[in-house]
Amino acid sequence: xxxxxxxxxxxxxxxxxxxxxxxxxxxxxxxxxxxxxxxxxxxxxxxxxxxxxxxxxxxxxxxxxxxxxxxxxxxxxxxxxxxxxxxxxxxxxxxxxxxxxxxxxxxxxxxxxxxxxxxxxxxxxxxxxxxxxxxxxxxxxxxxxxxxxxxxxxxxxxxxxxxxxxxxxxxxxxxxxxxx
Length: 180
What we know:
four-stranded antiparallel beta sheet
């Protein structure tokens, strides 16, 4: 990214943001996170201010990761979550047994449900083969889709046919449509 920033003339990334650039852009949790939770005087009558929690996959640099207050290392998703809150609120939560225990109960349930959703999505996701089978069974739709792809891929087919040739599923799709 630093080299690219010089070529394309944008600000280079900061060293403290390294983790953002090294992690995968898409994983099992991307569809569900970030998630924001607010607690306030409706939840705890003695709270003066609203407290905002941001549940993400990585700790946020300007906030305190509080997952160790609410989760155990063997809880589902523990390694993949960060429960972020402002430092001043972290101190309050850490000292207040009622808030801490209710939030612990909430987050224990939250990670169970999150893990269920991740597993459900993984178990019910369509594979490339499922899509190819659908196109085999619906040839007129496959031909319409091929027309769209031919239009969108014209430039790359002309300039980098090696890239198109490396797409295994695209080659199978073209066979379904009766060749290239």
